[in-house]
Design a protein that fits this description.
Layout: E1 8-9, E2 12-16, H1 23-31, E3 37-41, H2 42-48, H3 57-76, E4 80-85, H4 90-98, E5 101-107, H5 110-116, E6 139-142, H6 147-158, E7 160-161
Parallel strand pairs: 1-7, 2-4, 2-5, 3-4, 5-6
């Protein structure tokens, strides 16, 4: 975790990282500890809103823009959005910062995510295989598959004033 453990006003969270890194787990874990949490999982948005999109880089940019749009609706309704996606861009990061949405990358050893997800074997347009995850200046949590990840999430949640 970063040195960002002091209390800060945060209006929402956005987790990004490879498929299988622990974004959904982190979102669900923290949603039980943050008042008015509203989960916006990238997979759920893809299956219910973005059915018209594929997995190209351009489609992924549209997808994350839609996730942020739903997050804005949640904010306007007094909710605390907890969003997740595989990708993140610098432009979207800046939009999140303006809204006081904390953006956190979740890293997990590639051997572990590959063992969890079949999509890493031979499919096209896969972030981490034939598409890169953009390097951004964000908090980074490491999911090593142990209780250390839970402790890191709990430590961060204690520093949030929603």
């Amino acid at each position: 975790m970063s040195e960002n453990t002091i209390l800060e006003k945060v209006n929402g969270l956005w987790f990004y990282g490879l498929a299988g890194s622990g974004k959904t787990y982190a979102s669900e874990f923290l949603s039980q500890r943050i008042a008015r949490a509203f989960l916006i999982d990238g997979d759920a948005v893809r299956n219910n809103v973005s059915v018209d999109l594929g997995y190209s880089e351009d489609d992924r940019k549209i997808q994350i823009s839609r996730i942020l749009g739903i997050g804005r609706i949640a904010l306007r309704n007094g909710m605390f959005p907890i969003m997740s996606s595989v990708t993140m861009t610098n432009d979207l990061l800046k939009s999140c910062q303006k809204l006081s949405i904390s953006v956190i990358r979740i890293n997990r050893p590639f051997e572990q995510v590959k063992a969890l997800r079949a999509l890493y074997d031979g499919q096209k347009n896969v972030v981490g295989v034939d598409m890169s995850l953009q390097e951004l200046d964000t908090l980074t949590f490491v999911n090593d598959g142990t209780e250390n990840f839970n402790r890191e999430l709990m430590g961060y949640a204690k520093g949030i004033t929603a």
